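re: ur question from the group chat, yeah i did fold both. here u go
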Amino acid sequence: MNYAEIKFCDIANGKGCRTVLFVSGCRNACKGCFQPQTWDFLYGREFDEAVQEEILKSLEPEYIQGLTLLGGEPFEPENQEALVPFMRKMKAAYPDKDVWAYTGYIYDRDLVEGGFKHTKDTEELLSMIDVLVDGPYIEEKKDITLKFRGSANQRVIDLRATEAGGNICLAVD
């Protein structure tokens, strides 16, 4: 897997101060995407051990609330496969740090068993994510007043509450 960028001490892509990993590769190709260069799976640099260690070290300070995965598209099958081993390390090192992820796919349609983007890695990856922002960016539904999302169709889902209750639970702003 390649990655496009890493942002340290980011406050725009989830609650609190975070490390943000922008993976490369996306087949959604949303009109108006703010990073169309990340659609290319070969864009950026290789997500190697040194980069992974840099990210893990960046999460060490107490003031860093967690990690955010976005892109590109973290839930492209090849990206899921690369992210799961890294996320195991991240959660082992920092079990109390939260994880946010952004996907252009629909959680309860595309990422569930039998869904369009469900793979052997999906359940494990989702189990390590606390908040999932799902849905494609739709330029006609762009709303700059929304927190943590770009268009009104996107949802900010509390995955732990959703898992516990059996129904989609939206995260409170």
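okk and heres the other one u asked abt
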Amino acid sequence: MQIKKYFPVFVLPTLIAFCIAFLVPFILGIGLSFTEFTTVVDAKWVAFENYIRAFSNRDFLNALWFTVKFTVVSVITINVIAFALAILLTKGLKGTNFFRTVFFMPNLIGGIVLGYIWQIILNGILQIFGVTLTYDPKYGFWGLVIMMNWQLIGYMMIIYIAGLQNVPGDLTDAARVDGANGWQTLKNVTIPMIMPSVTICLFLSITNSFKLFDQNLALTAGAPSKQTAMLALDIYNTFYGRVGWEGVGQAKAVIFFIIVAVISFAQLALTRKKEVEQ
């Protein structure tokens, strides 16, 4: 009861910081998306004009489609490979802790640094064939996918390992006694038991893929001709690369937020429903 008495005292500083750093700018940004402005004090109301211009902008639509394709491929490859590695590293192999550390380390590298490292590596490989990452959009696309996998697989693997270690051995043993093969045990026992880990990994991989910026800027910067620009980079280019498009950039940012929020909450609702069913 004494702790509850002082609860507001401990929460207040964090709540104030949250409002100043996030809530107020977020609400202000939504308002500015309906205006034409260069600074906050000279905003002129234009209703939905910025949103119409955003959806009429080919670069934005290309970035949206590119981001969706990238997210789908990355989420699938990251989670499948991470789950496979997690299963492998829970088999009691020698050096398991070393491999867990090695696989997790790429997640600690900053996005810009990571992008430039992979730009050097991939361009060095592609030069053998006389091309570069920016020669064709497909090279930039798969370069981003490879880099994203390399960064996040280890992180997701650790989460899957935590889930696998909580699966009761009695259940898998009982499945084998009942005649279930390896795939049946995995599908009907293991995966349902680790659904909380699946929920977390899907959420993290989806949100990280959608909001990718630093790595995109460093690896391809949207080249060639903005065809490998993702949503975050397109919004950045709209704000700082086109005079008079600040309101459109803000509208794009709001659209971006809505898309990520809807997809993320839909994924959370779906996977948590699966958790309850189990």
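fwiw on the second one: The chain has a mean pLDDT of 88. The chain has 13 helices and two strands. idk if thats what u expected
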